[in-house]
C-alpha cells in the first residue's frame, strides 16, 4: 500500500506539472487569438518558448511514459504507451525541423506533445486512484490479527510486537485474546472459536498437541503455544496475499483487449505511414488549396501525427481494468471479497448454484430448540433434590445463571433462550463458579449446586453412574426421534440429573428469498448435506429447494463428485462455509465462501461473503452482471471512437469540408475518450445502488425464519420455539 501511495503521489506531481505547462500553452494561444498587446503574452506565444515547454514536458512528466513505450516497441510488444510516445516524439521532431530549417515551409506545433502528455497522464492518474481505492477497501482484513503477543522469556512474560515472533518462540494466550500466530499448544486447555477460519459455530477444545491459528479467539482457558508460522506466514497472511492477487489478476476479456491493443498499434503505425505517403504524393493534386500556405510534407506529417495520437488505444486499454477495479472495489465496500476480475466474468454466466446446508442455508450458530425434564417420574429419594426444578422454565433459569459467566456459544444460546422466556437474572454465589474447558461449568445458584455440560462432567459432580445413566436413558426415550442426533447438554442440580437442553442450527432468515430469487432468474438450485435425509429434506422444504435436488448423507469427496458431474452441463457456483466444503468449492467454476469460512474455505474460493449474509450471493451475481455489461459498453465505445476518429485524423473530411484534426485536438479527443470510459466505469457504483433499491427497496422480501421467542404454558413448560413460525 505504501508503494502504491508513493506511485500515486509521483503520478499526481507529474500530472500537476504537465497541466501547468498545458495551461501556459492555452493562455498563449488565447492571448494571440484575442489580440492582446502585452509583451509578456507575446513571449508566451513565441516559438522559442513553446519549444522549451515541449522539451521540458518530454524530459519531465512524460519521460517515463515515452521510455516505456519505446522499450515495448523494441521488444516487439507495442502498447498504448508506444503510440503516445511515437505521437509526442514525432510532433516534437517535425516542429523542431520546421524551426531549424525555415526554408522547408513546415508548420511548428510544439504545444501538441504538451497537451497530449497532459491528457494521457490524467487517464493514468485516474486509473491509479481506482486501483488504490480497490486495494484499500480490503486492508481491513489485517485488523483481525493482534498487534502484541505475550512472549515467554526465561520464565517471565514480555509483551512484544507480533511481527517480531520467530518459529520456536513460546507465547501465552489468555482468555479473550486472539491467537497472534499459528502454532501448537504445549500447555493448558481451552476452547477456541475458529469460526473465522472453519465456519463451524461450535468452539474446538484445544489441549497439548493441538494446532491453533492466528486470529482465532481463545475463550476460557490459558494456553502456552509454540509458534510455527509467524507474521505474514500465517493463514491470515495467506488471505492478504489473496487480496493482492485480486488486484493484479486479469480477466480473460482484459487479456483479449491487451492482445488487440498490441496488433492495433502495428495497424495504426501502418495507417500513419499510409496517411503521410498519400498526402505527400497525392494531396497537392487532390486539394491544391490546402497546400497554398505550406508544403505537402508539412501537412502530411501533421496528419500522420494526428493519426498516431487520436488512435492511441487508451480507451481500449482502460475499458476492462477500470470496470473490473470499480467492480472489485464496490464489492469490497459491500462485504464481497472478489479474487480478481476473471471471477466477475465467470460468475455472470453461472446457471447452477449448489448450497451446503450447515452454516450456509443455516446460520451456523446454536439456538435452544427443546428443554426436557424428568417431569413426574418416580426416582425415589433423589426426587427430593429436584424441588423447585420441576419445570423447563426453572431448569432454563438455573442453567442460564451458570452459563452467564462463560463466553461459550452454547452458554450464550442458553442465556438468550432464558432471556426470550423472560427468566429473571440470577447471580451465582461468588467464588463458586468453576469451568473446565471442553467439559462444562458448575456453580452454586439459589443454594443449589448446578452443573451444565457433558454427561461425564455432570456425573463427576456426584459419581452415581448407574443412576445417571438410567435417568439419561429415560429422558432420551421421552424426546422425539427427530431430536436424537441433535446437540445436547446435561443439567445437574445437587445430586440429580435435572434435564437436557437441545440445540439446533437456525435457518437463515433470507434463505427462502435467495433461493426463490435464483430460481426466478432461471438458475438451478441444489443442496448438499452430510445430515440424514429427513433433516436435509426438511430444511430444503423450508427454503424452497425441490426434493430431487437434495443430496444428503454425503461426504466431502461426494460433494466434489456431485459438483464435477453438474459442471458437464452447467456453469456451477458452490456456496459453502468450512473445511468439509473445500474440495467442492475448489472444483466448482466459482467457489463462494461464507464469511465464517475465511481461511479454510477462502484459499479455494473465488468469492468470500465477508458479511456472512446469504443475500450477498445475489449482490455478487448482480454486481458481476453489471460489471460485464459496463466492460462491453466501454469496449464498444473505444472501438467506435477509433473507427470514427482515425479516418477524420487521416484527413478524410479535408477535401469535403476543409476540416482537419491537429495533433493537439486529436490528443484532446483521445483524452476525452479515456475520461468517457472512466466515467462509465465509475457510474457502475450508481447503477449497482439503483439496482439494489429496485430489488429490495420497493418490494422487501418476506423470509421464512425460525422464531426464537419462547412461550411458557401455565405449568411452566416451554413451547417449541419453531411451532408457530412454520
From TrEMBL:
Residues 144-244 form the P-type ATPase A domain. The keyword Methyltransferase does not apply. InterPro entries: ATPase_P-typ_cyto_dom_N (IPR023299), ATPase_P-typ_P_site (IPR018303), ATPase_P-typ_TM_dom_sf (IPR023298), ATPase_P-typ_transduc_dom_A_sf (IPR008250), ATPase_P-type_domA (IPR059000), HAD-like_sf (IPR036412), HAD_sf (IPR023214), P-typ_ATPase_IB (IPR027256). One of its GO terms (molecular function) is ATP hydrolysis activity. GO terms for cellular component: membrane. It is found in: Membrane. It is a multi-pass membrane protein. GO terms for biological process: copper ion homeostasis. The keyword Transferase does not apply. Belongs to the cation transport ATPase (P-type) (TC 3.A.3) family. Type IB subfamily. This is Cation-transporting P-type ATPase. It comes from Corchorus olitorius.
